[in-house]
Automatic annotation (TrEMBL):
GO terms for cellular component: cytosol. GO terms for molecular function: sequence-specific DNA binding. Residues 12-73 form the HTH asnC-type domain. It comes from Roseateles puraquae. GO terms for biological process: response to amino acid. Coiled coil: none annotated. PROSITE patterns: HTH_ASNC_2 (PS50956). This is AsnC family transcriptional regulator. It holds the Pfam family HTH_AsnC-type. InterPro entries: AsnC-type_HTH_dom, Dimeric_a/b-barrel, Tscrpt_reg_AsnC-like, Tscrpt_reg_AsnC/Lrp_C, WH-like_DNA-bd_sf, WH_DNA-bd_sf. Keywords: DNA-binding, Transcription, Transcription regulation.
Amino acid sequence: MDESRVNTSAPPDDLDRRLILLLQANARESTATLARKLGVARTTVVARLARLEASGRIVGYTARLGGDEAGRSVQAFVGITVSPKAGREVVKRLSELPELRQLASVSGEFDYMALLRADTTARLDALLDEIGEIDGVLRTNSSVVLALRVDRQT
């Protein structure tokens, strides 16, 4: 099959999923090594990567901190409830925090769930105060990460 003619909006198949898993484990893996591990031609890997990037399924490559660096920081999940119609401004203000790693709108008890990473518990405490002082934030609920059991995030 000519990989360049594959629809970029097609759902990922098994090869795409295996390729993504390999990239999550090591985003710097060479296309030749990826092809060998997947049992396909290097050109197939190149075409698949181009298609996954063009479709928005892969949006970037990043460096993950090692155990020492990650171990010197503290992470917390923060549930955030906002007043009606304040969401856009709250998201804008939260996006300005360099310690914000992820922000998702969610269903359930909270409107948003944030993942924060701070250098110290004192900085985390200050961040939580900053978030609580944003106009439109009604309530927060924080859970500090004690140990990461599974991490498939790149």
